[in-house]
Sequence to fold (494 residues):
Amino acid sequence: MALRLYNTMSSRIEEFHPLRDNEVRMYACGPTVYDYGHIGNFRTFVAVDLLYRYFRQSGYGVRYVMNITDVDDKIIRNAARDGVSVQQYTARYEKAFVEDAAMINIEPPKLVRATENIPQMAEFVSRLVEKRLAYRADDGSYYFRIAKFPEYGKLSKKDFKGMLDGARVDVDEYDKDSARDFALWKAAKPDEASWDTPIGAGRPGWHLECSVMSMQELGESFDLHAGGEDLVFPHHENEIAQSESLTGKPFAHFWFHARFLLVEGEKMSKSSGNFFTLRDLVLKGHKPSSIRYLLTSVPYRNQLNFTFDGLKQAAVSVERLRNFRLRLSAGNFPAGATPEMQSLASETVDRMRAALDDDLNTAQAQGAIFEMVRQSNAAFDTDGIKQDDVAPLLAALAKFDEIFAVLDDDDGPKMKRVFEWASGEGREKDISNELHEAIQSGAQSDADIEEKIAQMKAARAARDFKASDVLRAELAEAGIIVEITKDGIRWRRK
Ligand code: AMP
Ligand code: ZN
Fold:
């Protein structure tokens, strides 16, 4: 059965087939690197990662490109404030983005930077001007003439009948409800970072960036363009207008948008105190795997309400899966096979695929794997699992993990790296006071504890109970109570 995906352009679920052979060409709008990524950003990036992984599991070759927006008004302003170059300013946050993405097991796309493609963007603008689709304003900025693109509004389904020819807007200050000619290129201002090009000195607008880099990497028409739902208008609408009016060809075939995440039922914002970067959550003691699991637990078009209770639940779910895998790999089973377990494993794989084929219904795919765990655990207790059942059950888990990527027990070392970063010089401005104080107080960090717990689990899986007991005693010494249950190991502070 083919993958069926919602396409924002048609407002329908459609069967997905690549435009060319067996290769999927996809582009995701990446981060603007002026700060650390927050969990809303990662909700979208993880959703696209899941799609990428599922394309590959379905047998496609995939070219996956993501841009890094490393120049915009905010970046220029902040760099000037800190007295560093734009490049120095963004390098730090780009690095943080790459590290954070790796921490929650996002498979790296090919990253392309706006500042490394400036000549191509200037060239694109001059082609638009030649075709009279764009014009130069008195200050040297260039604008796209939306009246030349009658289909403007087709993605966001906005009706722009009364489009004002010649009314303009800056890319960064967009009035959401009115259609205006948008800036393709902003003329240099005194003391601001700019690039000298044949169309004058200046810098590219954000919309232009994505059109130029996506077509350069993937061709004038490609399969899928992704981002959060806030990008539908104006960003993606503008990308379509400038790309399609220039090439005369359809730009992206599928438009994939992830719904915005809420935190504890509310829109995330710094002023409401419910704004969390990925690093904040890790510093609060949450495992990267729990965060990834929670972010994937609600299908991408449904609203995910991020809560700390949900995060704890996610940790328990991951723990159950890991423990089940350990139990299978370490157990001694009687020779032979049971038909029930054989068919359970293969039906689970079918159910997972059917769920993901249905517009990436991740919740149902997770449901299928847990049903397998539940039935297998019952079979464990009645000796209903035989030696030859182990491989197919493990294979079903592996298929699940190719997409969800939470089974490897590497949270401890990952968390440790974040704690090390947070205890470095000058971190006060990157994390909250509360977190900063907690780290400075030097209590045994959750990262260290997680690492010991992981070692304990490995020892137990290898039936080295003595080593496990030694670790448990060390933790007890440090005031950590460890509970061993059939679903895994839990710990808490005394
Ligand atoms: P930015 O770095 O602001 O350009 O955003 C990077 C990506 O994160 C874009 O695809 C946004 O649509 C997405 N994004 C931002 N906030 C949220 C949110 N609360 N929920 C889901 N996606 C978001
Ligand atoms: Zn974009």
